Amino acid sequence: MTQTAVVILNYNGEELLRKFLPSVLKFSENARIIVADNNSSDKSVEVLTKEFPQVEVIRISSNLGFCGGYNYALSKIEAKYFVLLNSDVEVTENWIEPVVTLFENKPTVGAAQPKILSYSNRQLFEYAGAGGGFIDTLGYPFCRGRIFNSLEIDKHQYDDTLQIFWATGACLFVRAELFRKMEGFDEDFFAHMEEIDFCWKLNRAGYSVLYQGASTVYHLGGGTLSVSNPRKTYLNFRNGLSLIVKHLSTGHLLWKLPIRIFLDWVAIIKYMFQGSVSDGAA
Q1: Exposed, middle or buried, 250 (CB in 10 Å: 0-12/13-18/19+)?
Q2: What is the distance between the alpha carbons of residues 14 and 102, in angstroms, rounded to a whole number?
Q3: CA pair distance 280, 282, nearest whole angstrom
């Protein structure tokens, strides 16, 4: 059994594979590199076969989304640790070892993430994960290095190792046995916030989620669904409510859920006034 399997879920990402796979192959010497293809309609599989023959390919017969795609693919892979890596991430030298060391030294660590910087502006933290994920009292997720859409410059202020609440799905390290024990991702989420739901399950089960600032990757973001996509807006708002309904007690929900719904209506009005009618409708 290979200790670490780097698994990239791909959907119509032939150009992303050409752009980002070389760094994964270069800096992941001791790991299996696997691409799970979510029934792409482009030439992704052909690109993998011809240009990256050293990469293992798992073909999925229909697009199962982020959650279903990874649940299916990881059920076919034997490893001690999984690294769920987005297809639009550039990795750097020594990106795997510091995170795996955390797992080896601390048996209660269930998941972890590296530092996530922006591929487009490499001095900035990146929206999806940044310096580690947390959650506020109303169930809204946020990150060190990114509050709302405001991104910090990386001045090595988050080069630490820290317990966090959730780790980004853009580069999620997880113990394989725990991924199976927790029954993977909730496929009702389809995509977006499923990693927060998964980490919340880990926290409730007594496992910790860690950030490892000694490892760095660069994330492009919006590789499959762009930021302005109404489908993405819908999933973010719907799944944000699903999170608190799943994990908060009835007593907390009685006052937090109405506040969240009110704030969602505020967001609708904001979208409409900004001319983003499709996002408001979503």
Answers
A1: exposed
A2: 33
A3: 5
Q: CB within 8 A of 226, min separation 6: which ones?
A: 232
Q: At what angle do helices 230-247 and 194-204 cross, to 10 degrees?
A: 10
Give the span between the Cα atoms of 277 and 274, in whole angstroms: 8
Beta strands 150-151 and 146-147 are antiparallel
Q: Provide CB contacts within 8 A for 254, sequence distance 6+.
A: none
User: Which parts of the chain fold into alpha helices (H)?
Assistant: 14-27, 44-51, 65-74, 97-105, 176-181, 194-204, 230-247, 250-273, 277-281
Return d(Cα 166, Cα 123) in angstroms, integer: 23
Per-residue pLDDT tens, the chain, 282 aa: give them.
579 999 999 999 999 999 999 999 999 999 999 999 999 999 999 999 999 999 999 999 999 999 999 999 999 999 999 999 999 999 999 999 999 999 999 999 999 999 999 999 999 999 999 999 999 999 999 999 998 889 999 999 999 999 999 999 999 999 999 999 999 999 999 988 999 999 999 999 999 999 999 999 999 986 455 556 899 899 999 999 999 999 999 999 999 999 999 999 999 999 999 999 999 999
